[in-house]
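Input C-alpha cells:
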C-alpha cells in the first residue's frame, strides 16, 4: 500500500460487508486523556505506572469480563476535572455512569465488578444523556483521522459535549466509525449527512440500518441475524426483539432465535459465516499489510413461528 492509498477507501470499493463486524462488549471504560495518542494509546501513554498496570489488567481480562477500555477527548474547553465514563451495554442492562476525577489515581477506586453488576451504590453517577464516540486516532491508522474527523465535527455540532474523539475501537477499513453509548450501537462508513440520522434514531431508541455494523451486546453471528431480521420486518426499535437462543449445526453455520417482545413471535435465522482471503495488495489496515482476510455473514434462511412452538436444535 502506498502513502496515498487508504484501506477504508479500498474496502469500500471492494464492497466489504460491515454486518456483524462490531466489537463484542458488555462494558466500556472511557477515560479522558489529552496527552498524545500513540498506536496503542491505552497501553502506551504517560499515565502513572499504577494506573497503567490497572488498565493493562482490564485489557488482558477481556476474555472473561468483555470490557473494552478507550481514551476519549473532545474539542470543547477542558474542565479542571478528568471525565470518565463506564457504559454497560448488555441486552437487558443498559447504563451510562459519569465520573469526574481530580487525578488519574482515582480510577483505581472504581469497582468495575460492582458497576458491571449494576450496584445501586453507583446510581448517583448515572447519566441520562447518551454519548457518541468517533475513532479519530490517526496514529493507529490514517483512515481513522481522515474519515473520522469530519464525523466527529458534525456530531459535535449537533450534540456538543456528548460527542467525543476516541482511540481505536476496531475496523480501520470501515472508517468512519461511530459508537452510540449506552445503546451499544456501532455504525461504520458513516458520511457527514448521516450523522443527523444516526443521532435522531438513537434518540428514539431505533437503529439506523443503512450503516449499522452491529450491536455490541451480541456475538458476531447474532449481530448479523438481528440486522437481517430488522431488514425482513422493518421494525427498527431497539427493544422490539430479544435473543432467545443460538445453536450451531456446522462449524460455519449458526441458527439464531430472536423473540418479539410485543407478541412473543419467535424469529429463526440461519447465518453462514465465511472467511475470505484477500490480496496482500489490498489489506484491511493501512499499517498492517499482512492482515488480508475479511469476514462475511450470509442469511441462509428465515422463518417465524408463534411463541407456543418449541425450539429444537
Amino acid at each position: 500500500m502506498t502513502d496515498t492509498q487508504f484501506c477504508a477507501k479500498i474496502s469500500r470499493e471492494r464492497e466489504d460487508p460491515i454486518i456483524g463486524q462490531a466489537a463484542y462488549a458488555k462494558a466500556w471504560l472511557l477515560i479522558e486523556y489529552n496527552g498524545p495518542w500513540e498506536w496503542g494509546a491505552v497501553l502506551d501513554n504517560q499515565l502513572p505506572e499504577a494506573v497503567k498496570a490497572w488498565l493493562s489488567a482490564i485489557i488482558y481480562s477481556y476474555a472473561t469480563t468483555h470490557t473494552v477500555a478507550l481514551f476519549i477527548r473532545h474539542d470543547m474547553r477542558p474542565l479542571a476535572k478528568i471525565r470518565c465514563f463506564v457504559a454497560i451495554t448488555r441486552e437487558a442492562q443498559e447504563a451510562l455512569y459519569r465520573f469526574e476525577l481530580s487525578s488519574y489515581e482515582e480510577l483505581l477506586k472504581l469497582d468495575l465488578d460492582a458497576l458491571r453488576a449494576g450496584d445501586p451504590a453507583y446510581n448517583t453517577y448515572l447519566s441520562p444523556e447518551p454519548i457518541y464516540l468517533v475513532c479519530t486516532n490517526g496514529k493507529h491508522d490514517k483512515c481513522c483521522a481522515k474519515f473520522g474527523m469530519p464525523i466527529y465535527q458534525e456530531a459535535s455540532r449537533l450534540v456538543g459535549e456528548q460527542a467525543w474523539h476516541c482511540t481505536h475501537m476496531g475496523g480501520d477499513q470501515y472508517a468512519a466509525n461511530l459508537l452510540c453509548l449506552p445503546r451499544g450501537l456501532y455504525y461504520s462508513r458513516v458520511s457527514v449527512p448521516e450523522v443527523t440520522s444516526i443521532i435522531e434514531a438513537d434518540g428514539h431508541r431505533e437503529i439506523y440500518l443503512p450503516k449499522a455494523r452491529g450491536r455490541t451486546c451480541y456475538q458476531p453471528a447474532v449481530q448479523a441475524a438481528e440486522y437481517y431480521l430488522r431488514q425482513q420486518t422493518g421494525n427498527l426499535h431497539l427493544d422490539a426483539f430479544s435473543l432467545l437462543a443460538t445453536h450451531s449445526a456446522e462449524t460455519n453455520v449458526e441458527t439464531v432465535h430472536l423473540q418479539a417482545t410485543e407478541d412473543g413471535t419467535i424469529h429463526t435465522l440461519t447465518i453462514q459465516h465465511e472467511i475470505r482471503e484477500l490480496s496482500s495488495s489490498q489489506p484491511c489496515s493501512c499499517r498492517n499489510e499482512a492482515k488480508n482476510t475479511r469476514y462475511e455473514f450470509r442469511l441462509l434462511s428465515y422463518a417465524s413461528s408463534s411463541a407456543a412452538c418449541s425450539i429444537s436444535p
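The two ends are 46 Å apart (CA to CA). The chain has seven helices and 13 strands.
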